[in-house]
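Quick check before the chapter quiz. The format below is the same one you will see on the exam, so make sure you can read both the input and the output lines.
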Amino acid sequence: MSELFDAVDALVASRSALPSAEERKRLRTAHGLTLDEVAGALKVRRATVSAWESTKKPTEPRGPEREAYARLLGQLAELYPAPVPATFTGASDSEAETLSADPAPTAPVNPQGLSSDFVDAASAAARRAASTTRPASTSRRPGARKAALAGIPAGGTDPRFENGPLAVVDVDDDGQVLAYCPGGLVLDVPAKSFPSLVDWTLKEAKLGAPKLSGPGKDADPLLVLTQAALKRYNLPATLTEEERLAGRIPEGHKVIKQLTRADWKLTKRGFGPWARIYRPAQGSERACVQLCIPSWNALDSRHWDTAGQLPPAELARLLGVYASRVMTPRGSTAVTGLELMTALHPATRASAPDATGKRHSEHNPGSLGKDPVDPAPCEAPDGHPVLKDLPRFHVRGPAEKLFEEAYDWARPMIDAECTLRHLVGIDVNMAFAAGANGLNVGLGAPTHVTNPVFDPKLPGSWLVDLSHVDLSKVKVGKEWVELDGSLLPSPFTPKGERPEGPAWYATPTVAYAVELGYEVRPLEAWVRRENGRYLDGWYNRLRDAYLATMADLGVDADLAPADFLAAMDGYKDRDPELAIVVSAIKATVKGGLGKLRERPRGEGWRPGEPWRALSRPTWRPDIRAAVISRTRINLHRKIVKHAAFTGQYPVAILSDCVVYAAGGPSPLDFLPYREGKPLPGGFKLGINPGLVKHEGTQSVLWGEEVRERFNAPELNLARYIKDGTVTDLDNGE
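Here is the expected output.
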């Protein structure tokens, strides 16, 4: 009889109604389950679970998977009922705890017909939730409440920062100041003045994040102020044009006077979109609060899209995901990218105890140290103090200036390509991050060497003549191959032109000339004997942040080529907020590398004089040049492998985007896959950094018409391949 009952239970479960896709995702994230955990328990692919949660076009599970999935969702719904928006204010401590505390999780009962793996995974998740779920308020957090928003947990295991790295401060219709934290937690803010808001943040809010490395420092709490909060604390909702250009409000503003009277200080950049308010450190204790003011353009729409217009709870979720996966923002994405390098490799560390047991500050091996170093003359941008003795209007050529930049190259299509129907663009994922991975870079000052023997393991800048490298005959692996060199860009110049004589190159560029089978004889070099893989940790953290966020958007790292292309189609629509996080992560990579060679920004600077960025040990144009060199060489290597194997050549290249003429509209119409496997060393579809995705497809007729319209046979079509929109103004990438 029990077998009959089991069969009836299974039959009923097979038709179980499932909640909406949004509710499925809310329940999973509320319990702290990842897509991988659910997929592993149900013995399905990660992309399958993601498709079940897709708000655009969800799919429905079938068979035993549906029964198990329904059982999981049912138990999670008991643990996490659909939240009801809070309407009370001023609750007592005990009332707030009672009204907002999550019910205690219970272990799931073993359902009939489910695998033991599924039951074990669900039970483990319940035990994990039982040990980590906290009440939404304590006696030190009056009026705390849960917001109706699924997201990442508010904080980690560090009790000092249990409410997360940041809060979005807003004012409700009743005039109550609220702090929206990641994870849906909302705190009542009692502060009546701006200095008291800073005090509350440091003493009661429990905001911040643990340090990313042993010798580092904990991340300061970040307050994001809405326009309502600005008005509440007597700050302007927007900046005047004069204030915007200055990047700050006037020093005589009454709020700044309030802070001064309360012994708070501002950094040199003053009270602007990304202000820092602090008191001098007392020993190891820091007292510092970071501000982000979206209406003052703190969240640049080029990188953060519409984040600045989001409601407070959604903005807290978005920034919380970025903070937990990258780091708490310290300014623009470029500033944060640079700060991440330092956070992972602090300049100093505590020494071993001396004879008296006292520790001292000492250089942290593997870091760039605490003092800036001058670049080699060839590495210095125009106007740098090391070039002050050059004639005022002197223009340095390749033999005087290192010029490692990304590709901007195109050529006219040949007849055979014009007979094809499509132009297909592919784009390298996180190309510059991939270029930084495993790269040996200089850590200290350069040493000048004449007539050196080239060493591919030694970071530096080399003056060498590479004009003899002939792309019509090169080594691919261990074999010489013949190519049509006229259809390939030179790997040694950004415009793809063949060099005409000695020029300065970074180590990866010269090493590639050797790899292609040609001898190199440098005339001189600036080398850095103190070196290391400084950017590895930086790459790993940004890679993991990118992959985790793309996985949340339904694009997994192990998808088959066709499945990957399908998953990428419309991925931003599945969760627009997480799509903004992806954009910000990419901007963090490019911006952080760009900051390594930051130019003067006003400051009344004159050529030959130092500018503010030169005082940083992270002002390192040689490291930027090495990353760009390696990124360009990585791309050229794939292009050569592809040409040698298929006879196909690129039509245009812009930075990390390559355009080919093809018979069909998909990358699979020209990428050589055999039994699902790509060409070794060539282009491979996938989401991992260094792999490629589909950038866009246009017709060959479109390409010819555009070039004819602008009378530009070599117009770079890679710039416009994504949507086909072309203007007569070429603004760059």
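If your answer matched, good. The chain has 23 helices and 23 strands.
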